[in-house]
Amino acid sequence: MMFGLEASLAIEIRIYLMNEIDAVSPRFFDNFRDLSDLLAEFGPYNGRYVANYPSDWEKKLRDHLKHLPVIEQTKVKQKLSRYNLNGIKSILIDNNKLEYSPNISWTENVEVLQKNKTFNDVIADLYDEGAIFQKWEDKVEEYRAKRERSIHLQGKPGEYIALIEPLLKKGPAAYFVDPYFRPTDEDNISLIKKLFEKVANSECYQLHFFIRKKRALEKNNHGSESKWDLDEYKKELEYCLSRFVRRGKSLTINLFEESKEFESHNRYFITKYGALDFGKGFMRFNYSVAQIPVYIVDKGQHEELIDWYISGKAAFKNIDTITIENNDL
After folding, report:
1. Which helix (H) or strand (E) holds 295?
2. CATH 3.40.50 fits 19-145, yes or no
3. What's the rounded Cα separation, in Å, for the pair 148 and 261?
4. Alpha-carbon dihedral of residues 209, 212, 214, 220, nearest 10 degrees?
5. Strand pairing category for 292-296 and 150-153
6. Where are the chain's structural domains?
7. Which segments in the chain show pLDDT lower than 50?
8. What is the value of pTM for the model shown?
9. Could you give the CA distance from residue 106 to residue 103 in angstroms, rounded to a whole number?
């Protein structure tokens, strides 16, 4: 059994593996099969991403296609057009702080960064004979064997933020589903503040919370019979949270009443790119041992969650929406 720093380090390592970010050369492949295999192993359904390095990685990959045999070009283009609604962007993670010199090769740039272990792993340029990194054909089986699709947390806010960060920043909106979440509670105010700090310079512009109306309108966290009406609640939300909503961003609280046709018990973090099942939700527990399960949601369930919460097809009995915006110029 691990305690203290040792336990925290073990959790950080598991989050690091579940959100693996690898450097992959845009010229890692010379055929359709290799690209298809890479797309199958990376992205939100696998908890593994390709670093958008350099920042025009996708353009360089498409430029590379021109050098492949015509039949391979055709198959790759068809694959990319069908890949999903979000295209290849769903597997890419931006990091604008990483410098890239056009005067040296991709391999040489990555070698410099990898001295500081910038990436979990590296997939070599297929055409660079001097590369010190392994090629995709030598790594693909290893990738298939080491998928991390679940993790157990202690229940600290920092863990939640670290786990959702790759999806959170991809935007344009993030959805938190937790019937018992109370945005007016002190710990949750702190969590929302940290969320807006994380998305400040990202492509995520909207944060949405789906919470049970009856629970939200209680004036304290102990089943109080004293309740806010909607106007009072809106003023309370604005008092507690408006100062954290950055320019060009918004916070939407969706207060739902369940119907017999649709009951919401699970807790999820959802974007159009992928989702996580948070089991016990986003409340702080601070267990000494990691025991709160979190799972990567598969494609079928993700599409269902999009229908329910993003497309608005969940059959709630009623839903009231409160939005706090910052439209300062």
Report:
1. strand 292-296
2. yes
3. 34
4. -60
5. antiparallel
6. 19-145, 150-325
7. 1-11, 13
8. 0.80
9. 10
